[in-house]
Automatic annotation (TrEMBL):
This is Alpha/beta hydrolase. One of its GO terms (molecular function) is hydrolase activity. InterPro entries: AB_hydrolase_1, AB_hydrolase_fold, Epox_hydrolase-like. It comes from Phormidesmis priestleyi ULC007. Residues 26-268 form the AB hydrolase-1 domain. Keywords: Hydrolase. Coiled coil: none annotated. It holds the Pfam family Abhydrolase_1. The keyword Hydrolase applies. It comes from the Bacteria.
Amino acid sequence: MEETWQHECIHTNGINLHYVTQGEGPLMLMLHGFPEFWYSWRKQIPEFAKDHKVVAIDLRGYNDSDKPADKEAYVMAEFVADVKGVIEELGYDRCVLVGHDWGGAIAWNFAYAYPNLVEKLIILNLPHPAKFAEGLRTPQQLLRSSYMFLFQLPIVPEVLIQLGDYKALESAFLGMAVNKAAFTQQDIDAYKDAFAKRGALTAALNYYRNIFKQGLTSQDWSVLDVPTLMIWGESDTALGKELTYGTEAYVRDFQIKYIPNCSHWVQQEQPQLVNQYIREFLSK
């Protein structure tokens, strides 16, 4: 599977971004979440490389991408500029944009900022920003998102996550997963190795440390014209299923596919179903 994957680097928006690519054709750009890297798309890359140029990037601060030291480098305006730069540097004028978790948040914001650059939008287990803002005003979602408040502290989260050979990362994947067999020890070790790179852990946490000053939870959202598919693992302990209700009020052409008995790590736990739903969406 990995024999035809290529590891490449692109310079855009003042930084170098590492990515894995496979295939030729229309661009499909994949954005991972926390605490991951391009590897979280390992079960999608070869499938969609059959008829797309698939590009799965390491977001800024992660794995082999540059890790600016300034905390203010980790704000939505920079993430959106990174994505725009990648599309343009690769020589494309539009893409199918796929995002999970933080990558989903970036994908939502990018689609609003540059709808002409997004042919279709695919979001996995990350609500529309307006719905997430609503959720954060409820006790149940505040409780689920309590880790975000811990991440606001300096140094302490870094220390806790590194304890016991990054035991917290293993717990995040295996503790949340319904199908724990979806993650091999090799997979867990890959995530640990990515986070152990100098500066990566603090960079990833800086996404959260800026979350309340980016307007993510306060701005007004219009109706998005980009055709959008949302795929949602129903057993997500970090983000409640109720955050998906009413999304159609914000997206003109919207469909959602729920996957029961599946956690937040939806594309890794149920890759065949996720790939099937994406295929059906793209064929329309």
